[in-house]
């Protein structure tokens, strides 16, 4: 983990540091990579190349007294990479399922992703539904209310976002960060990916406990 | 936000974030990694238990002082792995060495086969027109296999002992090397004949005739005596076995071993399992019974018609013969059925046992069908009355 050293420094002060694995899922070309790029780098590329395999990025956000570090796995949306997805959402504590509000099929596909996550991902996973490309509201096909109702039914966070205008991008990540359990994390168990994180956060905490 | 600089993309391993380049590679790698992870967890759990155990048993040593306070175990520390040397390991990577093994084995086998064949060819040449006279025989032997010069060898190459009056030098007739008496073996000529007859099967007869004539012509025992020429006493001595009087060739243990291995191999190849030997005999009996039964039935028929072609005594004798054969068949089938069952270590199992029992059952059916239903021979009295009625 290359960024271990950095996690201690943020201006959050003496507060807790939590690390979460977040995965983005959704049909090809709905804007997963653009969302992440906007969130991580504040950039937007009109012609974002389609992702090959998966992309990995990290971003840290501060929530009151907690520093939340997201390890973001941006998966490739193309059909041929779908079989790789389980590898990436395995052990993830959060997921953003993205669809394109101008494309009904992508909403259908998002629903199947939600179903798959509910069935196969960690039971406590926090799932957010993002209706991306909200800037193209004039071409909208998927109604806000329809998606909102679906999200409520399934206990998902829901926002319409736009990577282009940065609308709701930081908000959706923050909403996820808020919803994630900050202390329960230790007893999470399950996959060892968590155990390793657990070891790390304990190690990071250790100096704080004895020196201060 | 110092750490948001890097963006990795590609076929990344979700665990170690290495780019594997292709989907297939990623899958393989991921399986390995996930596997390792499981082991890590297992290991850390083991570690905790191990420490607890140590604590309880108070066997902590100074070298390793564990802080048994948390379940946080530094899994990446190298020394933790040495602690578990004796734990059963999960199966890791598989590698197939068959091809390598085969390559090595083939080379070796080829060498041995070539060596053995060379010896057999030499043996064949030696045996062909082997002179009876010891002197002539020696020149014949040397013409085929050049002997190593006596002066070149100071120690026996096999046992490394020095040669002296008591331990004399001997030449192997097949490779020409010098060894002491203890490191050489004798090959009886009859034995040698068998070996080359088998290998030169198509040559057939001449070998057989020639070599037997040598053995016949050669006096069975020849008094020891030192010949006038420089040939050593031993080379004469070694021609004939003092006990059996049979001629033999002196070979070094290595050549003898090679030849013997080949003979053994031949034997095992030709050897039939006991069960098939038994079964063949059983079949032999059964065909005999078949023939006798047809004969007997004809006899009975003609007797019952009052014909005079056969006598009652003849028929009764035949019947007795059939019954004896049937008895042997029954015995044999019983033997087959229990074949090897007394072997405690390796009794016949599964299909073998089933086969054995089926043979017995089939034989029983055969006997019932064929022998028990045989028509009876009329008594002498009945036969007479039959004859009269015929008239």
From TrEMBL, chain A:
Subcellular location field: Early endosome
GO cellular component, one term: early endosome
Recorded GO MF terms: G protein activity; GTP binding
Species this chain originates from: Gryllus longicercus
InterPro entries named in the record: P-loop_NTPase, Small_GTP-bd, Small_GTPase
Protein name as it appears in the record: small monomeric GTPase
Lineage of producing organism: Eukaryota, Metazoa, Ecdysozoa, Arthropoda, Hexapoda
Compositionally biased residues, Polar residues: 184-195
One GO BP: protein transport
Keyword Protein transport carried by entry: yes
Family as reported in the entry's similarity comment: Belongs to the small GTPase superfamily. Rab family.
Keywords from the named record: Endosome, GTP-binding, Hydrolase, Lipoprotein, Nucleotide-binding, Prenylation, Protein transport, Transport
Principal location listed in the UniProt entry: other
UniProtKB/TrEMBL annotation, chain B:
GO MF, any single term: zinc ion binding
Gene3D superfamilies registered for this protein in UniProt: Zinc/RING finger domain, C3HC4 (zinc finger) (3.30.40.10)
Pfam families named in the record: FYVE
SMART domains: FYVE (SM00064)
Keyword flag Mitochondrion: no
PROSITE patterns hit by this protein: ZF_FYVE (PS50178), ZINC_FINGER_C2H2_1 (PS00028)
Keywords: Metal-binding, Zinc, Zinc-finger
Domain FYVE-type: 150-260
InterPro entries: Rab4/Rab5_effector, Znf_C2H2_type, Znf_FYVE, Znf_FYVE-rel, Znf_FYVE_PHD, Znf_RING/FYVE/PHD
UniProt name for this protein: FYVE-type domain-containing protein
Source organism (scientific name): Gryllus longicercus
